[in-house]
């Protein structure tokens, strides 16, 4: 009996605790909704700073409050603070429990991504919005715009990559041409050095061409084969010239004698005194 009494007391305490917890949640929800309501009124009066504070209070009171995150995201969006707006709308999308709430959150996420020129990501966000509400014309229109933007960005990326590849190819061809030109210059230099070396090899120690030296050496060798006159003696050629001159002189004398014989002997006249 005593044990049954204890069990009933425990059950009663659990029920009471659960009821208190539910009441606390209801209180937090009500309080959060009040903050959201006040924030909405401030948004209508374009007091975005005060509205942001009210939405923050709502989220602080109930972190899963969808309306607070969603409206705070819209407030950031109106001020051009797209990163903060994206963060809050992602919160709203994660905490959303109904298709309508998810649709609105993803729709706004798509709009924020479009502002950030993230068209490919925006396409996926609008797809998620349409999955939750395929009948929304505005979402379908934004989806078409985002898809066209994503395709254009992809084309631009392809063109950029193609240009970079072409530039890389041109740079490679340029480098190849420069290397070939350097190799040609080096070959010409090597050929010049080789010709210079061959020219140097054909010169003697005094820098004279070997051909000239070889010619002189050949001439000297030819003269070595002939008898060379000793000092004080006539060479054979000189002797030959001298004999020819003597012979010519003798012929002239003989011709003169013969001419006198043909004229006859002169008669000598003597006078007597």
The fold-level CATH name of the domain at 13-95 is Serine Threonine Protein Phosphatase 5, Tetratricopeptide repeat
Helix content: over 70%
Number of strands: 0
Order of helices and strands: HHHHHHHHH
User: Main beta sheet: strand number and arrangement?
Assistant: none
Which range does the strand content fall in? under 5%
CATH superfamily of the domain at 13-95: Tetratricopeptide repeat domain
* Radius of gyration over all CA atoms, rounded: 63 Å
The secondary structure category is mainly alpha
Q: What would the average pLDDT be, to the nearest integer? A: 78
Under the CATH scheme, the architecture of the domain at 13-95 is Alpha Horseshoe
Q: Ends: how far apart?
A: 229 Å
- Based on Cα principal axes, name the global outline: rod-shaped
What is the CATH class name of the domain at 13-95? Mainly Alpha
Our count of helices gives 9
Unreliable runs, pLDDT <50, ≥5 residues?
264-273
Give a written overview of the molecule.
The protein is built from nine helices and no strands. The chain is an all-alpha fold. Residues 264-273 have low confidence and may be disordered. The longest helix is centred in the middle third of the chain and has 65 residues, at 137-201. Helix 1 (2-44) runs antiparallel to helix 2 (48-61) and helix 5 (99-115) packs parallel to helix 7. 21% of the residues are buried. It has helices spanning 2-44, 48-61, 66-78, 82-95, 99-115, 119-132, 137-201, 210-225, 236-263. The protein is rod-shaped, with a radius of gyration of 63 Å. It has a domain at 13-95: Tetratricopeptide repeat domain (Serine Threonine Protein Phosphatase 5, Tetratricopeptide repeat, Alpha Horseshoe).
């Amino acid at each position: 009996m005593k044990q049954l009494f204890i069990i009933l007391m425990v059950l009663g305490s659990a029920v009471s605790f659960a009821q208190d917890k539910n009441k606390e949640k209801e209180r937090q929800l009500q309080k959060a909704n009040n903050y959201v309501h006040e924030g909405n009124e401030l948004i209508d009066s374009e007091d975005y700073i005060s509205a942001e504070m009210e939405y923050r209070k709502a989220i602080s009171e109930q972190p899963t409050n969808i309306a607070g995150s969603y409206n705070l995201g819209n407030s950031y969006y109106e001020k051009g603070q797209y990163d903060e707006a994206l963060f809050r709308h992602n919160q709203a999308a994660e905490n959303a429990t109904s298709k309508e709430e998810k649709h609105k959150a993803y729709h706004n996420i798509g709009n924020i991504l479009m502002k950030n020129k993230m068209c490919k990501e925006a396409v996926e966000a609008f797809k998620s919005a349409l999955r939750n509400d395929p009948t929304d014309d505005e979402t379908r229109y934004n989806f078409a715009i985002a898809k066209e933007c994503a395709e254009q960005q992809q084309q631009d990326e392809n063109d950029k990559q193609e240009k970079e590849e072409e530039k890389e190819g041109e740079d490679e061809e340029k480098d190849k041409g420069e290397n070939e030109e350097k190799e040609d210059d080096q070959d010409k230099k090597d050929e010049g050095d080789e010709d210079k070396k061959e020219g140097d090899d054909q010169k003697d120690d005094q820098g004279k061409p070997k051909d000239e030296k070889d010619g002189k050496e050949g001439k000297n060798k030819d003269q070595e084969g002939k008898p060379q006159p000793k000092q004080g003696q006539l060479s054979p050629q000189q002797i030959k010239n001298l004999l020819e001159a003597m012979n010519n002189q003798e012929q002239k004398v003989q011709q003169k004698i013969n001419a006198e014989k043909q004229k006859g002997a002169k008669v000598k006249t003597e006078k007597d005194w």
